[in-house]
Input
Amino acid sequence: MPIHLNPFIRASLLAAITLSGASLTRAQTSPEPEKQETIALDRFVVTGSHLDASKGAAPVMVVTSDEIVRSGISSNVLEVLRKQMPAFVGSGNIGVSNGSTGATNTYGGSKIALHNLPTLVLLNGRRVATNGANARGGLNFVDVSQFPLSAIERIEVVTDGASAVYGSDAIGGVVNIILKPTFNGSEVGGGYAFSNRDGDYSEKSAYVTTGATNGRLGVIVNGSYFKSTPLMQTDRPFSCVAATTSYSGVVGTSYLNPSLNSPSAAVPVGTAATATSIATLPTGTYQTGVPGLNLAGDVTLLTEQEKRSAYAGLTCRLVDRKLEAFGDVLYTKNDSYSQLGAQFATFSGTGTNPQQIAKYTPYNPTTASLSPSLRYTPAPRRYTNDAKLLRFTTGLRGEITPAWNWEAAYTYNTNKLTTQISNVLYTPNLDLAVLGGYDQAGNMVQGGRYSRVYTNFAAPAVPSGPDYDTTAKAATWLAAQRTTANTVLQPALDPFARPAGIDPASLANVFGTSHAEFTSGLQSLDLIVRGSAFDLPAGGIDLAAGGDHRLESLKGVPDENSRSSGAIAQRWSGATFFDLFDQNRAVNAGFVELRFPVTSPKWNIDLAHAFDASFAYRVEHYSDMGRASTPRYGLRWQPVDDQVTVRYSYSKAFTAPSLFQMAGTQQTLTSDLRNLFGLPAGPWQATSRQTPNTSLAPTLAHTQSVGIVVSPKAVKGLTVTVDYTDTDLKNLVSRIGANTILQSVNQFGTASPYASQVAFYNFPGKEKSLAIAAPGDVKTFLQTHAAAATPANLFVVDPAVNLSAAKVRALDVSARYVWATKSCGTFAVGTAGTFIIDDKIQTLPTDPYYEYAGLMTSTEGTMSGSHFYTTLDWQKSGWDVSIGNTYISPGDDMGTGGSTASKRIRIPSYMSWDLAVGYTLRFQQTKVAALFKELKVSVGVNNLADKMPPSAPQAFPTTSAAGADVATYGAIGRLYYVSAALKF
Output
């Protein structure tokens, strides 16, 4: 898609160029000494500011490539950051754990969130295309697992609102992943990690990097590979039981005698059946009190991952320091695999005629209508995801004067995600497969043990209208459309049998695979000019100005049976449903940032050694949302000298509504309404349509941050940092919830604020829809139409709205002390910790704020009161030894939290230890020195004591999660690893 600059962006860029021209005039009147080089071209590759970060008011934390190696983590950026920076806390940090945090929402990707808040992810200082999952209404995030660890030079993290600098999404902060710009020589390396617990979990990685620089031209090429095996829930003690009473062989509260694979082996069935109910069958055929079936062996705890990536970077000085060309390209292919238990279904006697099915269904052991369960355990649902990222940047930068430089670049991103779910059930064929009615030759025979089912998962579309508005009516119509041309004959399915008693041929056209394809695109063009504009008495004013233009696109394409609405909607059972989505928008931005000194160290003023003020302002215009503007104010104060620095900032930040929230629709079924309205056994459900809202406003945040950095000269090598952030969010985009809407409408009738969002027989305002008239209408309708009260009869519209709010208060602390000795080497001790003081969520404007700090909930994940990672390092003569400690304070398991919080269950504190030993052998003055430069070898153990995560059965039940928060605490246990790197 071509880039077009509208008048807004042209004006922003013109302002930047005008500022640079003014600086050029100033520079010509103030000549610099000859040969003086005051600014390197890469000086401004920093995070949190377009100006010199050493004078910034924003807290910046850095993880270097050496620290990544010492961590013993070879999987992805999320795991590195979550381990070394406890500020990455809560359920917003979702990775390969397929349990408590709903990893399937990311389709195998990894999402990060500082303090559990929206966080902007940059690659080399520029935006990256998001994962395509948002095209179905899922999470809107950048998949950080797509960035190869072996190509990363460092990761810079700003724990402060930064929308005034970078725009949308930087509420919690910014994570800037900086890839290696140059490399001299070649390096090959790899690693292997494994657990000695059940499951034999392992990781293996390999990479090669090569490059050259000659002062004018620099080239780097990197290729990497990573693969991990899956870990199943049954492999860990906290998740080894995931029991269900819904499985094949169960009919209501009875289950088939374990000695039988089917009741047909013991009693007459079909047309020969004589028993009038399960209870009148011969003693021992069925037993009461259904025991649980453990599905943990079929559910992944950690997904299987396989990643390949290639990265290349180029810099070329065209005119000395006046002009330099640069560019890079990254291609990553990530394949992931996860698994859930076999899909469950209940046969409820629907079909051509419930009485006929009761009497003639070939495997029914009674003459009554029954509701047997089906869960064919040999066919678990398998999720396969293929994510491909292609990104390249090309640009120019250079000096205008020794005091001013500029940079312009074009970036292209596309992120394509292909997904499939195998072993889902094709519902039109499910009833037909049970029905039978044919012999082996295809002749219609009452009670025949062969069925006619539709081929190619392509049953005809059911017509709309009152004659087809229930499941039974639709099934009757579908059964009547069968011909020899559009169906195939296969053995009838025995729904009363255990898996061992089911003929696999009877499932041939019942099990299928759903498919979906998502594509997220991002193109951007940016220009920035920066330098020192003019002098004040205390020094020069640093200034940056510029603009950028972005085109964002998002497309999601489901297979025909995976659509959430339409004539053949939601025909897979066990799949994810959404409608075709294809949307794009343009974003134009202009920004200015300045910093000026109020006092100067040269003045020697008591308590005002150095005092700087900064200001940033950014304006963005979205083609679908409109305008958003964000300011940021900062102060930096050194009262005596550079031993103590105090910094303060106030900023406004925002997150723009996603493309799906602005334009996407998704149709789902509500949860069971039985308890909501006091109804008998169901299920009782409604059809809910989640609709977009073109009037959505951005989520807004006001953040204050105050911090102090202490580096006392009396204790050389010691640095202590404390930062407090206070963030208030409003206009969070959410949905009221179908159940909340229905409850209000049933209670207040037309006086309910949601009365226009509920109707009978069709969606409100549509043909043949019947509006709400009085209080109690919803419950009365369900009770009156019990026989036909299917989801097709009760309809709810649930639009996206700016609804929720939050308050987050956090204290981040860090300390590092480096002690170098002449004879014993260098010692370093460091710690980084986060205290979550408040994490308050307001779901509805009429609700109170609910506190989540110190709790474990399915809503927010684990928001521990305090979380620390501490290390002790020693280096000498090529040796590098590191000991690490993770500490998480006690908390309370509160289930979902908020107004539906469960009884508190105290969760104990958690502590684990890591050990790493490395040695670097340098081939100096040896025979191999001509071929090799050095060899680095590292061995280590993460989680030395093999500590398992604490059980949290309310927040993370084994029936839907893992029994514990494996995202926060880890699921592997003790992990041994070895890695090596050879430079030549």
